[in-house]
Automatic annotation (TrEMBL):
Protein name: cytochrome-c oxidase
CDD domains linked: CuRO_HCO_II_like_5 (cd13919)
Chain's gene name: coxB
Keywords: Copper, Electron transport, Membrane, Metal-binding, Respiratory chain, Translocase, Transmembrane, Transmembrane helix, Transport
Enzyme class: translocase
Record has Aminoacyl-tRNA synthetase as a keyword: no
Enzyme Commission number(s) from the entry: 7.1.1.9
């Protein structure tokens, strides 16, 4: 190879390297905020719980990546260091039972699971802490295939009766979905109930989701911290139109929220509208027969 050719190919390689580095830098800076938040929806401040949940998620990924790098590194090292050399024949030297190594295989994963468990448990306890006397209580009733929202706010009781919006694939139908209103910076307790089968209350941007089980009340406690429109959905396959069991969430100022409440009828749509309100009483009564 002439020296001229060598210079050209070296120059080309360098150019290729610079292009790759520039592309990587662009990708990394362009979505750095997204990357830092682990591609989660919403923002760190969407509710009082999203920062903690985001940190748990992102740190778990960093830990997993660290473990991955060590594991991949060891695998590659073995492949290269112990590859078959020229002229080698037959099986390599066979080994069985290496007690110290096997003890390490057992202890290291137990420690890793223990660490993940510890942090998950801590965050879960903190997120699930119940708020006494929340500013707003919403008794949410999931039903095939819509949502009723019973608001208890400032001594007032109002309700929103959800009707399923049949999605046609055309734009604008989303606006006719049942809508849940929440005042920003005020504590909310969701009392989650089902009128018929198991549903699941999920607002993806809030990073929280909980099953709604007939005959049982589950709950979520949080404080929305950012105004905006979010999507909500049922996250438990609950029948034919499960995929259309959607709702909108509007987080608005306290004044706007109060104005909205005044447009709703007074009262609550309680368990008297459940498909079988006495389901569990019946079960108990039958046991005596
Ligand atoms: Cu459902």
């Amino acid at each position: 190879m002439s020296s001229e050719k060598r210079t050209v190919s070296r120059g080309r390689r360098a150019a290729r390297g610079i292009t790759a580095a520039a592309a990587a830098a662009l990708v990394l800076t362009g979505c750095s905020e997204q990357v830092q938040r682990g591609w989660l929806p919403g923002s760190r401040e969407t509710t009082s719980n999203t920062a903690e949940l985001t940190d748990l998620w992102v740190n778990s990924w960093i830990a997993a990546l660290g473990v991955g790098l060590v594991t991949w590194g060891l695998m590659l090292w073995c492949m290269v260091a112990y590859r078959r050399r020229k002229g080698e024949t037959g099986y390599p030297r066979q080994l069985a039972y290496n007690v110290p190594l096997e003890i390490m295989y057992t202890i290291v994963p137990i420690i890793m699971v223990g660490v993940l468990f510890y942090f998950t448990d801590q965050v879960q306890r903190s997120v699930d802490e119940e708020t006494e006397d929340a500013d707003l209580v919403v008794d949410v009733r999931g039903k095939q295939w819509a949502w009723d929202f019973n608001y208890q706010y400032d001594g007032e009781e109002r309700y929103y009766a959800g009707v399923q919006a049949h999605l046609t694939g055309e734009e604008g139908v989303e606006e006719t979905l049942p809508t849940l209103y929440l005042p920003v910076d005020e504590s909310v307790t969701f009392e989650l109930n089902s009128r018929d089968v198991i549903h699941s209350f999920w607002i993806p941007a809030f990073l929280q989701k909980r099953d709604m089980i007939p005959g049982k009340t589950t709950r979520i406690d949080l404080t929305p911290q950012e105004e905006g429109t979010f999507q909500g959905k049922c996250a438990e396959l609950c029948g034919e139109y499960h995929s259309e069991m959607l709702f909108n969430v509007e987080v608005v100022s306290a004044e706007e929220f109060e104005e909205y409440l005044q447009t709703l009828p007074e009262g609550q749509l309680g368990d008297e509208y459940d498909r079988n309100p006495n389901l569990y009483d019946d079960v108990t009564a039958n046991e005596g027969d």
